Amino acid sequence: MGNCFLRPQLKKVESVGDPYASHKQLMQPPNNIFIPPRGSSSSAVSFPDQRSHPLPMPTPILQTSIEKKRSGLLPNPPTESQILASPGLKSFLYSELCKATQDFCLENLLGEGGFGCVYKGWLNQETLNAETPGLGITVAVKKLTPQGFQGHKEWLSEVNYLGRLHHPNLVKLIGFCLKGENRLLVYEFMPKRSLENHLFKRSRQPLSWATRVKIAVDAARGLYFLHNSEPPVIYRDFKASNILLDSEFNAKLSDFGLAKRGPTGDQTHVTTIVMGTEGYAAPEYIRTGRLNVKSDIYSFGVVLFELITGRIAVDYKRAKDEQHLVNWVRPHLRDSRAIARIMDNRLEGQYPRKGAYVAATIALHCINPENKYRPPMAEVLEYLEQLQSPKFQRLPSPPDPSQQKQSSLATRSPSPTIQLSPPNWSPINRSPRKSSSRPVSLKSSHHSRFSRLMEPCEEQLNGSKFHL
C-alpha cells in the first residue's frame, strides 16, 4: 500500500523521503537497499500510488521526563480477546465467506490495495448466513494478504475501532473472520465506491459543486465524531481513497488500520512510528513522529483542496511546480479574484464563487504549517455546513450559446489546461459597481482566531488579499 523505504538517520529532516520506491517492497527492506534519486528514470521503479504506506522514520529526539509522560502510551489498551468479543460483530467462518463471495472469484472483485483485495458478497439479512448471489444484502469482504503492508496489528485495529464506534459517517463493520493466516473483514456495501474514483478518473461523471460540499461536510462530521470520542481517536489516514460513497453520495470513512488513540489529560501528543500517505501527512508529524488530532486537520485540508481543484495531492506526472497540490494552490489564494485559477475544469464554471472561495479559505487554514493555528474540526464543520445554504450555492447563469459562438470566433480559445470556464462567464462574478449587493458573511458561535479571520468575508470576496 504505497511506498515503503528506509530514511537515513539525519540530524534534521527537511522533507518527505524518496517517493519513487516501489510499493511492492517489504515493510522493512535491508539496510543496503538502493533508493534511486528523485527524478531518476529507472525502468524498474513503478510510479507511486496514493495508498497508505510507511513514511520515513523521524530523527530520534531526546525527551525529558515530562515529555515522556505526556507522549507515553495510553493505559489499559483493550486486549485482542476483548476486541474480538465485541457484541456488535459476527465472527464468520471462512467457509461462509467463501460461499458468500463464490470462492472469491474475479467477477466479484471490487478493488485491490496494499492490504489485499475486496470482494462483493451476499448475506441473509436476518441470519447473516451466506446467501445466493443477488439475494439478501450485499456486503464487501476485505481479505488481508499476508504479504501486504497491513498486518495483524492493523487488522485488529480496524476491528477495535469500527466494532465499538458507530456513526452515520463511518462505514459499518458487520463482522470478521480469523482462521489461521486468513484475516477477513465484512463491511456494508458502498455502491459508489471511493471519492478517489470520482475525482481523478476521467471516465466518471464529474461531481457537481453541491455534491462536493456534501461529501466534505459528511467527512468532517466523521472526523468530528472521532476527535470528540473518549478517548479521542486520530484517524491518521484521511484521504480520498478512504472516503466511500453510498448510492446517495453520502460519505463514510473507512480503513481504520492506522487509527490511533489520541492524547488525554495533560498530554499534548502521542509518539508513534510515522505512517500515512505522502502528500496527506502533516509536516510536523513527519518530522517528529508526534501525533495529535491537528494532524487529521491537515489531511482534511488537503482533501478539501482535492475536491476544489480535482487534482490529487501528489502527481509526479505534472510540471515540477504543480506536483504537490498544497504548494501549487497557496500562491493563488492571496487574492479572492484568483480562485478561478485553481477550480476543477470539469465543473465548467458551474460553481458559486463566494462558496468556492470560502471553502478554499477553510482548506488554507487547515494546512497551516503550524499545527497550533489549525482550527478544530468543530469550527471547520460549522463553516462547511453554512456553505450548504442557498446563499452560498447560487450558480452563475448558464452561457448564451450564440454569444459563446461569437466569442470563440473572435478570440482564440485557450489551452485546455488553463480554460476554467465558458468564454462569456465571469469567474469573478462581481456585481456592477453601482449595485448595493454585498457578499453575505459567515457567522460562527465560536470566538477563536479562526472564526475572527473567517467572518469578515466582505473584504476578502471584494478582492483584498488574505493573510494566513
What do these coordinates show?
This protein is of the alpha+beta class. The protein has two domains: 82-188, Phosphorylase Kinase, domain 1, CATH 3.30.200; 195-396 and 415-461, Transferase(Phosphotransferase) domain 1 (Transferase(Phosphotransferase), domain 1). It has 14 helices and 14 strands. The protein has helices at residues 65-71, 80-84, 94-100, 152-164, 195-200, 209-227, 283-288, 293-309, 325-329, 353-366, 377-386, 401-410, 449-454, 457-461; strands at residues 53-54, 90-91, 109-113, 116-123, 137-144, 173-179, 182-188, 233-234, 243-245, 251-253, 260-261, 270-271, 275-276, 290-291. The strands form five sheets. A six-stranded mixed beta sheet has the order 2-6-7-5-4-3, with helices on both faces. A two-stranded antiparallel ribbon has the order 1-13. A two-stranded antiparallel ribbon has the order 8-11. Helix 6 packs antiparallel against helix 8 (293-309), helix 6 packs antiparallel against helix 11 (377-386) and helix 8 runs antiparallel to helix 10 (353-366). The longest helix has 19 residues, at 209-227. The relative contact order is 0.10.
What is this structure, in a nutshell?
By secondary structure, the chain is α+β, with helices and mostly antiparallel strands.
Q: What attributes does this structure have?
A:
Transferase(Phosphotransferase), domain 1, 468 residues, Phosphorylase Kinase, domain 1, alpha+beta, 28% helix, globular, disordered N terminus, 6-stranded mixed sheet, two-stranded antiparallel ribbon
